[in-house]
Design goal:
The chain is of the alpha/beta class and 538 residues long. The chain has 18 helices and 12 strands. Helix 2 packs antiparallel against helix 4, helix 4 crosses helix 10 and helix 8 packs antiparallel against helix 9.
């Protein structure tokens, strides 16, 4: 594809040169030999063929670029979805839903002008000006020298302006990501905001995010218009200098009319392709920012696939999970040191601590979604065989874990569809028994198992969503239960039912690790691990 693009650009350059010389020949013949237009029919037909060929080559370039861009965007979107939904992906939790949705829609759509316009113009600008410039220099050395000294001005100014454009586009993209995440968070928690009367208070913050995005967008547009004007002036003045020198030398008889006319027709073809690269760069700048975000997102996923993992030994039975000297690093905050601990089979370990002390991040590392900067998490069996979790195949390790995240989410569909995706042959009686164990009664679900979930119109409260997430974890029935705030946003009766459920899990020989701020949950645990740093406790 790269070779073919360069080949097309070379053909366009050749057709451009032929078109200029034929047109110059027609004009000079009409004025110098005083021929009627009908006497130049052969030259006119030849010119028409060249113009048609050049137009066809440009059209073919557009078609190939459009198809290439569509294929690249489709592959990128497919890779992102594969990375997001694959079992061993580590980016599902690392990426915010709002920003990821924006990337999959507006971001990838912005790549269209980048691949369809900017990239093909790069090939044209690297071939056409060079060939045309050489032809002009061979035809007239003076015009060639003018081109040699003026052409570099366009990329020079383009680079200088591009730096400001890059910074402005990055700010614009960041504000759009912030706006997307903010809007998604508001939609996700609109029920709670209305219940506590805080919905209107968020309107001002949303307006501020929207206003910030508007200002950054206008800033990018301002730079785009000014840079286009500057580059247009450079190209126009450069062609004007060549035209003036040709005119003066024509008066002195130092250049033939045919030479001057051909050079005058060819001169713009040296500057416009380079100038168009700068113009297309501005139109594709959003796509460049989206491409960088996409590749950063995919890098996390594919970097994890490079690591060779081992399978769990046959008939492996987990007895405990232990960790020591764990240190978790973040991009925008100080690292967190996790206190050592051990979670044993048939016991409940409660993890407490103030917000921001790494409790949920610890779960993310325990499940393999994020990478620890230091330390390791190990599992052992009855024979005291020890395995490092980071050395295991993620899908096999996660198949042993039932997890309730801090902010549960479900795929669009019904409760029955979600349950059957876990257990295809689950009976209706078993489904209702699981819901009842989690404190969800039939009266709470007017449509029963056909109740819609996974969108903002499901009508489920935050507490119901959390209990439904616990039910999903129960159906998976893993050897390890990781519960992140399972009793948050539920009433006292539901909390007691969930605590009873947690106690029944340990009686079944499960390893249960619960993150909670609730006193009742902590008191019901067999051991408690406080993640609050020592300097905060003193």
């Amino acid at each position: 594809m790269l070779f073919f693009s360069v080949f097309l650009a070379a053909l366009i350059a050749i057709s451009t040169i032929l078109q200029a010389f034929v047109l110059a020949r027609i004009i000079v013949t009409l004025f110098q030999e005083h021929l009627a237009p009908g006497q130049l029919i052969e030259w006119t037909i030849f010119l028409s063929i060249i113009i048609g060929t050049r137009s066809a080559l440009l059209f073919l370039t557009e078609i190939i670029s459009a198809r290439m861009s569509s294929r690249i965007i489709s592959e990128l979107r497919e890779n992102i979805f594969r990375a997001l939904f694959k079992e061993d992906s580590r980016i599902a939790l690392a990426s915010r839903t709002g920003s990821t949705s924006n990337l999959l829609t507006n971001g990838l759509f912005a790549l269209q002008p980048y691949f369809a316009k900017f990239v093909p113009q790069l090939f044209i600008a690297s071939v056409v000006p060079l060939l045309v410039g050489v032809v002009i220099a061979v035809t007239d050395l003076v015009s060639g020298l003018i081109i040699l000294f003026t052409v570099p001005l366009i990329p020079l100014f383009g680079i200088l302006i591009g730096r400001y454009t890059d910074v402005a586009v990055r700010r614009k993209w960041e504000t759009l990501q912030t706006l997307s995440n903010h809007l998604f968070d508001l939609l996700s928690g609109i029920t709670s905001l209305r219940v506590f009367g805080r919905a209107n208070a968020q309107r001002k913050k949303l307006e501020e995010s929207g206003e910030s995005y508007r200002k950054e967008t206008l800033s990018v547009l301002r730079i785009t218009f000014l840079s286009s004007l500057a580059l247009e002036l450079i190209a126009t003045l450069s062609v004007a200098v060549i035209a003036v020198t040709i005119g003066i030398r024509l008066i002195d008889g130092k250049i033939a009319l045919f030479q001057g006319m051909a050079i005058l027709i060819l001169a713009p073809e040296v500057y416009w392709p380079i100038r168009n690269v700068a113009a297309y760069f501005h139109s594709a700048s959003d796509g460049a920012a989206a491409a960088e975000e996409t590749f950063n997102l995919l890098h996390t996923h594919y970097a994890s696939e490079i690591v060779q993992r081992e399978s769990l030994p046959p008939s492996w039975k987990i007895e405990n999970i232990s960790w020591n000297e764990l240190e978790i690093h973040f991009q925008d905050r100080n690292p967190i040191i996790i206190p050592p601990g051990i979670a044993k089979k048939g016991q409940v370990l409660a993890i407490t601590g103030s917000s921001g002390t790494g409790k949920s991040s610890f779960f993310s590392n325990l499940l393999g979604f994020n990478s620890l900067a230091k330390g390791k998490i190990s599992i052992s069996d009855l024979d005291n065989r020890i395995l490092d979790i980071s050395s295991l195949k993620s899908e096999e390790w996660r198949s042993l874990c039932s997890w309730v995240p801090q902010n549960p989410a479900f795929p669009p569909g019904t409760i029955e569809t979600m349950f059957r995706s876990i257990r295809p042959h689950l009976s209706e009686a078993d489904a209702w028994r699981t819901l009842r164990d989690c404190g969800i009664k039939r009266s709470e679900l007017p449509k029963g198992l056909n109740s819609e979930i996974g969108d903002f119109t499901s009508g489920l409260s935050v507490g119901q969503i959390r209990r439904l997430a616990v039910a999903r974890a129960l159906l998976k029935n893993g050897d390890v239960f990781l519960l992140d705030e399972p009793t948050a946003s539920v009433d006292d009766l539901s909390e007691r039912e969930l605590i009873s459920l947690i106690n029944s899990l340990k009686l079944l020989g499960k390893i249960v690790v619960v993150i909670s701020h609730r006193t009742e949950v902590v008191h019901a645990a067999d051991q408690v691990l406080d993640f609050t740093p020592i300097r905060q406790l003193q």
